[in-house]
């Protein structure tokens, strides 16, 4: 999305805003990441976990979690002058997957957050973006006390396409989250450029 604004001299300046999805399994840190990096107060649609939800949501490994995103999280971050990212955090439970198609419309790319203690929880997100050819990076949220795994080990475990970036991060840390987003923008830019060249070649 591009918007045109006039500066004080009457000239036009172009500001580019890119749509980014933040996806992954239940309780992996999506809301935390959006909140940590957003320069505006993030929009959250969290509700308390209910007894009915406990029957369908797998809370193993996230026993401390008391709320869940039921629609989306939204935040904004300026990467540099003239370039902003609009962040849309997706709900992690299967029953909210009908929202993903709407949220993914017009997205430049996605961050798939992963927890190595429950790595299988991010398989659906990986499959979703691979099948729709939406560029994504896998960001391993390094939880305290969790065993550390290298990026190549995670890539092999997830059977990622060659070249898909895997980065380690702390979803609570703004600088760490910003680095993940920069890596995604760079990767997605290369992917979209390559596809454009293929289409005209």
TrEMBL record:
It comes from the Bacteria. Keywords: GTP-binding, Hydrolase, Nucleotide-binding. Transmembrane segments: none annotated. InterPro entries: Gliding_Motility_GTPase (IPR052705), Gpn (IPR004130), P-loop_NTPase (IPR027417). Pfam families: ATP_bind_1 (PF03029). The keyword Endoplasmic reticulum does not apply. Belongs to the GPN-loop GTPase family. This is ATP/GTP-binding protein. It comes from Streptomyces coeruleofuscus.
